[in-house]
Amino acid sequence: MKRMKYVTAMYISLSESLGIYTLDQLYELLTNKQHSMPISRHRASIMQSRIFFFCAIFAVLVPVWSLIDLLFLPGELWRELLLIRVISATAFALLAWQARKEPDLKRARLLLAGMLAVTPLFYLISDHWLQAYELTGTEQVVAELYALLPFVMIAGLTLFPLTLRELLSFAAPMLAVVVLSSIPQTHNEIPQAVSTIWLFTLILGVAMFASLNQLRYMLSQVNRASYDVLTGLLTRRAGIEMLDLQYRLTTMSETHLSILYLDLDHFKSVNDIYGHDAGDVVLKAAAQQLCATVRKGDSVIRWGGEEFIVILPTATPDEANDVISRIMSAGLGLRPDGKQVTASIGIAEIQADDAHDWKTLVELADHRMYTAKIQGRARSMGINDSQLLWPDFPAAGIEKNYTMDPAPLGAES
Question: Which domains does the chain have, with CATH numbers?
Fold first, then answer.
């Protein structure tokens, strides 16, 4: 019983040190399956920048170290080691060059795997050559330094925000290399082999804790910056990154991309009459309805105030209208007086509008949303002035029957 309490206390202490308070937070550290696009992009950017830094340094230091080999090791051995040093330096230089490309999580993982693979392979080959020579004194000391290479690389994992699954997959080959190279040939070598493997495991544990702690901190910071506190939607800043990414993906694949620009009708009257708390309730309900209605893979952004943008990857104008029809049928919640929340919606599509950047798409959708407001609100305005009306709302006279604010219509959205 006491042992269970002790284990439970240790688990709670470890969880709190990593900032884990829910099962979802724990799952985020185990695998990246629930990581959002902003998190994946930010993590890829960090990983590639650090891979570039390390590979650039190793590309210089690895061949420079041959000067030490030249001073202390036999000439024939030095030439053999120089060859593999040149090959390793070339590999590091290529990895550094690839790390300068656009951040991508898959690319970042492959580059990290490549960086971690070069050093163990270098160690295995160099150790094979070193064993072929009878080294003594200073020569033996220099040779022993090669055995530290796997430890250096496993310690380097502390600088990368990795999930537990990723970290173990990267560490497993290096652990195998250490175990393989530590297999005792005689009974007297067993203590040395055990201590080597134990030291590697200890460093791996420290690297695991540091990497997960870094990932947990990064997740909390990115979530705080990327998601609106009130609605839980993407913030404008994160939304801009998403728009830029989706636009580039669309232009590369030559597919469709539609966006919706929504502005809640007469929202100012809710704040003026019922207060901002009531307005927050309306905004939150509208956001939840949008997320529940759009397609899987679509992104909803709180663009500002009561304005929202919905990104519809691969959606043609007709498919965008289908999404709008679902939004209108499902509704966006109720105002404090029990009436429906409606929105004026503008549509833009990359091919139909011949948009040359995502900013043009947003400007076109914004303009059409404004046109929808002028023509009576509670409707969408699409390409070629096509319209969809909110159910149960007439085509005209909406302002007269619906507005609660005696101020002129131009004074509110």
Answer: 31-226 (no CATH), 236-411 (3.30.70.270)
- Helical (H) or strand (E) element with 346: strand 343-349
DSSP H helices in 227-311: 236-253, 267-274, 276-293
Q: What residues have CB less than 8 Å from 304, skipping those under 6 apart?
A: 236
HSE at residue 45, side-chain half, CA atoms within 13 A, is 9
Distance of alpha carbon 181 from alpha carbon 131, whole angstroms: 11
**Which phi and psi (to 5°) does residue 227 adopt?**
-120, 130
Catalytic residue among 306, 307, 399, 412: 306
Cβ burial, residue 411 (10 Å; 0-12/13-18/19+): exposed
Note if 306 is an active site residue: yes
Closest Cα partner for 288 from 328, 342, 233?
A: 233
3-state secondary structure 56-120: HHHHHHHHHCHHHHHHHCCHHHHHHHHHHHHHHHHHHHHHHHHHCCCCCHHHHHHHHHHHHHHHH
Residues 41, 103 contacting (CB under 8 angstroms):
yes
Phi-psi region of 352 (alpha: psi -120 to 50; beta: other; left: phi over 0): alpha
pLDDT value of residue 407? 35
Return the pLDDT at 397: 37
CA dist list (Å): 413 to 103, 307, 348, 356: 39, 10, 21, 29
Residues 6+ apart with CB under 8 A from 272: 405
Tokens matching residue 264: 């809640």
pLDDT of 3 reads: 63
Helix (H) or strand (E) holding 200: helix 190-226
Using alpha carbons, list the distances in angstroms from residue 277 to 15, 64, 112, 308, 334: 35, 66, 48, 19, 14
pTM: 0.65
Rounded to whole angstroms, how far apart are CA atoms 295 and 332?
16
Provide block-wise average pLDDT over 10 residues at a time, the chain (413 residues).
58 56 69 79 91 93 87 83 90 94 91 90 79 76 77 87 91 85 78 86 90 85 81 90 89 92 94 92 94 91 94 94 94 91 95 92 95 93 88 49 35 47
Reading the block at residue 337, the tokens are 């007086």
